[in-house]
Write a structure and sequence with these properties.
The structure holds 2 protein chains of 2 kinds. Chain A is an all-alpha fold. Chain A is 78% helix and 0% strand. Chain A is elongated, with a radius of gyration of 20 Å. In chain B, helix 8 packs antiparallel against helix 11 and helix 15 packs antiparallel against helix 21. Chain B starts with a helix and ends with a helix. The chains are: A mainly alpha, B mainly alpha. At the A-B interface, helix 1 of A face helix 28 of B.
Chain lengths: 123, 663
């Protein structure tokens, strides 16, 4: 099989993922888009590993690493989303804007409140 | 113990005493008095021992290389000749007397430990100047004295007068010290050494490159330290310090240093005729001006201060005619009787509760209340007025004899004009000196009117010291026949013509003041005056501090008083007003230097506040605005951040590709 098929597929997958990360509003869908991007990279790694006929199969080994790390990441990510949802009643990324820069006076008043919110979120 | 070891110990002991006092003064107040008095007494004993061993013979030189500097080395050197050992004896004896006196005078002063330590340090610094054979080491002592005088004059720093006087003393002497330092560098660069012997050898071979410039630069430092016109203005104001400090500064240390330094390096000055003429004119102006000013002062200590300036004028006059023996002889006798006068004045101020002569002239029985001070001060004033047979007569005769010698052109290398200047000024000053001595004595001890507030008895330490100092005041004149062996060998004995002339002048001055005083007596009763600080229980220093603080308020001036009964006012006539303020020299300096400097300071403040700080504030404000602009990008939306990040990385990637492809 020619290298161009997996490469194009990976590029399409990555672009889809990128679009999802930048444009989706639901935090879970953002996480899923991240997974799409990771897997696009995995596909590339495996394809090039075969293409280059690497004796050590570094690409395949790296893919296993990425899969393991992605599993851990998605676990933590989902946990955070769950907690944010419990605390705020929403998982809409557009509405999670506590870190925005307000007018100076408001920001100073909000600061302790935000700290409390974060403490709650962590709990 | 070798003579060198003893000589090293002489400055070292007061220094160690000062260090020990500063370290333990707060925790062990019981040790302060012994630590103040004993090292100074021991130094006095050792100084006498060194003087006996040296005996006016060949100069004793000992040196140890302190630091190789790469160019002109600095040595820890001793140079003991007749001048050094005798002046050291004077310094240690007067310092011991002052320390003993201070134990009683400042007995309840909370700052006594630091005071005693500073007096010891002052003494040590002066002894370093006296014994040092290296100009750089001498300069160390010279500058330490400047700092000590600043602290000691400002001892009563609660009063405004003392604060400004201490600053003035420091700044004016420093003004002279800067040219002095350059003069030392010039000397050293010509001689290739800082050792006094090496410098004198260079001068003797005539290889000084700029003798006049060097001498004039050194002269500035000498004028500052020895309170010569035009840098004498700090000395009368320095009276704001405690009386023992005044005695120390005026008799033994500080002001003596300048004269002593000039005496040591006299060949440098005689190498230049111009420098000698400047020195002579400086001495003449100082003598006459200070004597006139002394006649108009109301504060007893300021009278004595101006008299010190005048007597130092005699010493520089003697140096101007090239006779350092006469100068140091007058330094020795003056040290004895001026210390006595100041310490006596301290007793009188305590007994009278005021430092104002106008107030004392209205007190009956002051002489009976402090008989010790009265008798000893009478003798000391006679010595100051150069009445035979007291010590001042012989030393002043030596100065005038030397001036006459030079005036007749018998001194080689000395311009006759310098001789005439010093001789004429000296004779007129002899008259004026006797006049202000008589005025001080009459106003102080012959008061009329009501009895003064009764103060406690003066302590034995204070009066005893006066009697000790009376011995040299009376007898030191006889040394005129012994001292030539210690000095250059020139005769110091009085000659008949100058003796008759100056004694005649002195008697005339005294009689004129007496006559004027008899006439003004009638006026005294009509104008009551007096602000008396009566603290019979407190230490004497308390009375003095209050007297200094209240003089301005009571009499309208720190120096003069509006007293029609003052014989000085009658004699000086319209000149009195100007003489009381020291001929407006302070006002002149204020207009010439203080105000321009103040204006420059205001300009600098304006430039700093309005110009420099604008840049600084701008440097702070610009990043602030930049930060505000950047803050607007902080929307809180993670996806916006990521989009920007992505766009940025795409731009970077495109740029990298373009660069890599060489486009």
């Amino acid at each position: 099989m020619h290298l161009v098929y997996p490469a194009v597929l990976a590029a399409l997958l990555f672009c889809t993922g990128l679009y999802g990360v930048l444009a989706r509003r639901n935090a879970i869908l953002v996480l899923m888009s991240v997974e799409l991007m990771l897997n696009a990279v995995n596909l590339n790694l495996v394809a090039f590993d075969v293409w280059l006929r690497d004796k050590l199969h570094a690409g395949q080994a790296l893919t296993l690493f990425v899969i393991a790390i992605a599993a851990a990441e998605i676990g933590i990510g989902l946990a955070i989303v769950l907690l944010v949802y419990r605390a705020r009643g929403t998982a809409d990324v557009d509405r999670l804007r506590d870190l925005r820069e307000d007018a100076p006076a408001e920001a100073r008043e909000d600061a302790p409140v935000e700290a409390e919110k974060k403490a709650e979120a962590a709990a | 113990m070798t003579t060198t070891t003893a000589a090293v110990l002489v400055p070292l002991l007061p220094f160690l005493g000062a260090v020990a006092t500063l370290l333990t003064g707060r925790r062990a107040p019981g040790f302060v008095r012994p630590l103040a008095v004993l090292p100074t007494l021991a130094a006095a004993a050792l100084a006498v021992l060194v003087a006996c061993r040296q005996g006016g013979g060949q100069p004793l030189d000992a040196a140890r290389r302190l630091t190789p500097t790469g160019s002109v080395p600095i040595d820890l050197a001793l140079h003991l000749d007749g001048f050094a050992v005798l002046v050291a004896v004077l310094v240690t004896v007067v310092a011991s007397c002052v320390q003993l006196y201070s134990t009683a005078y400042l007995r309840e002063d909370p700052r006594y430990p630091s005071y005693a330590a500073l007096v010891s340090l002052f003494t040590a610094a002066m002894l370093l100047v006296v014994y040092s054979g290296d100009l750089m080491v001498l300069l160390v002592g010279w500058e330490v004295m400047g700092v000590c005088s600043y602290f000691l004059v400002g001892h009563y720093w609660e009063t405004e007068a003392a604060r400004s006087a201490s600053l003035k003393a420091f700044l004016v002497t420093k003004l002279g010290d800067v040219p002095f330092l350059f003069g030392l560098f010039l000397l050293a660069s010509d001689a290739g050494t800082f050792r006094i012997t090496g410098v004198l050898h260079t001068v003797a071979t005539g290889s000084l490159s700029h003798p006049t410039l060097t001498a004039l630069l050194l002269l500035a430092g000498v004028a500052g330290k020895s309170a010569q016109f035009p840098l004498h203005t700090w000395l009368p104001d320095a009276m704001a310090g405690p009386t023992p400090v005044s005695a120390l500064i005026h008799a033994a240390t500080m002001v003596a240093a300048g004269v002593y330094f000039t005496a040591r390096l006299l060949p440098v000055f005689t190498a230049s005729t111009a420098a000698l003429l400047v020195l002579a004119v400086m001495a003449a102006v100082t003598m006459l001006g200070s004597a006139l000013a002394a006649l108009a002062q109301d504060d007893i200590k300021r009278v004595l201060a101006y008299s010190t300036v005048g007597q130092l004028g005699y010493m520089t006059g003697a140096l101007a005619v090239g006779d350092r023996g006469a100068a140091v002889f007058h330094l020795l006798t003056h040290g004895a009787f001026k210390a006595l006068l100041f310490l006596g004045a301290g007793v009188v101020i305590h007994a009278a509760g005021t430092n104002s002569l106008a107030a004392m002239a209205r007190m009956r029985g002051l002489a009976r209340r402090v008989p010790d001070a009265c008798w000893t001060m009478t003798v000391a004033l006679l010595a100051l007025a150069a009445i035979p047979p007291f010590s001042g007569f012989f030393s002043k005769e030596a100065v005038l004899g030397a001036a006459e010698h030079a005036a007749r052109g018998e001194a080689p290398g000395i311009p006759g004009a310098a001789g005439w200047t010093v001789l004429l000024a000296g004779l007129v000053t002899a008259l004026l000196t006797a006049a202000y001595c008589a005025r001080l004595w009459l106003m102080c001890f012959c008061g009329k009117d009501p009895d003064a507030a009764q103060h406690g008895r003066e302590s034995a330490a204070m009066t005893g010291v006066l009697w000790v100092l009376l011995i040299p005041t009376i007898a030191l004149g006889l040394a005129a026949w012994q001292l030539p062996d210690w000095f250059d060998g020139r005769s110091l004995a009085p000659t008949l013509p100058t003796s008759l002339l100056s004694t005649g002048c002195a008697l005339a001055g005294g009689l004129v003041v007496y006559g004027a005083w008899r006439r003004t007596q009638a006026l005294a009763a009509r104008v009551p005056l007096g602000a008396v600080a009566a603290d019979p229980e407190a230490a004497p220093a308390v009375s003095e501090e209050e007297a200094i603080a209240t003089h301005l308020a009571a009499y309208g001036s720190i120096a003069g008083a509006q007293d029609p009964a003052d014989p000085g006012r009658l004699l000086l006539g319209p000149l009195h007003r100007h003489a009381a303020t020291g001929f407006h020299l302070d006002a002149l300096y204020a207009a010439l230097f203080v105000r321009p400097v103040g204006a420059a300071a205001r300009l600098v403040r304006f430039l700093d506040r309005e110009v420099v700080e604008t840049y600084v504030r701008g440097a702070g404000t610009a990043p602030g605005w930049l930060g505000a602009a950047v803050r607007r990008a902080q929307t809180g939306n993670v996806q916006t951040y990521l989009s920007v990040l992505f766009a940025g990385s795409v731009v970077l990637a495109v740029a990298a590709v373009l660069v890599a492809s060489g486009a």
